[in-house]
Design a protein that fits this description.
By secondary structure, the protein is α/β, with parallel strands linked by helices. Helices cover 25% and strands 25% of the residues. The strands form three sheets. Strands 5-4-3-2-1-14 form a six-stranded mixed sheet. The protein has a six-stranded mixed sheet with strand order 6-7-8-9-12-13, covered by helices on one side. Strands 10-11 form a two-stranded antiparallel ribbon. Strand 8, helix 6 and strand 9 form a beta-alpha-beta unit. The longest helix is centred in the last third of the chain and has 15 residues. The structure holds 2-oxoglutaric acid. Keywords: Hydrolase.
């Protein structure tokens, strides 16, 4: 499986619409890859909390539409990173959803905003979305502004493999990855806006999630400095044996990596540690 990891750099001076155009062009350049991955919140800004409400969109808003077109033009499976999703109250139905004062079962705190990853197929169709479960900020930032996702999401990859979806801070919660493993995942895709201050945790935890679950980890971080926070870069592709197949530096960079998915099965057979779990 040929994978392109697009470590996008941005600052505060680039308007969101210009960034969407620039990144869509970068995605189109990745034709020939099977899977292309973008970072968390690269369009609205990972730490641009004050702008999030204004930049929030439904999944089929301008960011989603541009990514769908880019995936189709490149003929790739595109993990388009995440957006601030503005949900529609009552969108999923239910007894009280959409009624005045009624509860939307998908918006537990009623904000109707989520940090939502989008995956588009080579025909441009939305094939999966994942709402970030663990919100970063310890009472401010995401927990204050966004609702938490609740659903585990795995998505089909070429070659009969399944990828589990998670986002940034989720990487600190190993139980999430066990649940994805139990859902059949052999790959974890993790877009992030992980700060430089804790980049050692980012590389360490990506390796740990790969080794403990015998899964490939495709982890796409952000570069540059925005909203006063320097991003850590170091996007990485880690094999199921825990080897770094590719590791980016701190600037904008594209990693193009051939991932041998048969090696996951071979490793799990040679070293069948997952069979010794005590549940
Ligand atoms: O866990 C961390 O250190 C960073 C997490 C983060 O920046 C995020 O989830 O947006």
């Amino acid at each position: 499986m040929r994978v392109a990891v697009l470590q996008v750099a941005y600052g505060d001076d680039e308007p969101m619409s210009a960034r969407v155009e620039r990144v869509a062009a970068l995605v189109r350049e990745q034709a020939g890859h099977d899977l292309v991955v973008l970072p968390e919140l690269w369009a609205p800004g990972g730490f641009s909390y004050r702008e999030w409400a204004d930049r929030a969109q439904p999944v089929d808003g301008s960011i989603g539409s541009a990514m769908s077109a880019a995936a189709r033009d490149a003929g790739v499976l595109l993990h388009a990173g995440s957006i601030i999703e503005r949900g529609v109250p009552g969108e999923t139905g239910g007894d009280t959803a959409g009624e005045p004062g009624g509860a939307d079962p998908r918006s537990s705190e009623g904000r109707h905003l989520w940090n939502t990853s989008l995956v588009f197929g080579p025909d441009g169709a939305l094939v999966a979305s994942y709402r970030k479960i663990h919100r970063f900020g310890f009472g401010s930032g995401e927990p204050k502004l966004l609702d938490a996702g609740e659903d585990i999401v795995v998505v089909d990859l070429p070659g009969n493999h399944l990828a589990g979806l998670s986002t940034c801070y989720d990487l600190r919660f190993p139980e999430l990855y066990r649940r994805q493993l139990d859902a059949g995942a052999t790959v974890f895709v993790v877009p992030a806006a992980w700060p430089a201050a804790r980049v050692r945790h980012w590389t360490l935890l990506a390796h740990a999630r790969a080794v403990e679950n015998q899964c490939v980890v495709i982890a796409c971080n952000t570069a540059g400095t925005h909203a006063g926070t320097e991003m850590g870069g170091h996007s990485q592709v880690i094999s199921a044996t825990g080897e770094a197949l590719a590791m980016a530096g701190t600037a904008e960079e594209v990693l193009s990596v051939e991932v041998d998915m048969d090696a996951v099965t071979t490793w799990r057979t040679q070293f069948p540690v997952l069979g010794d779990r005590r549940l």
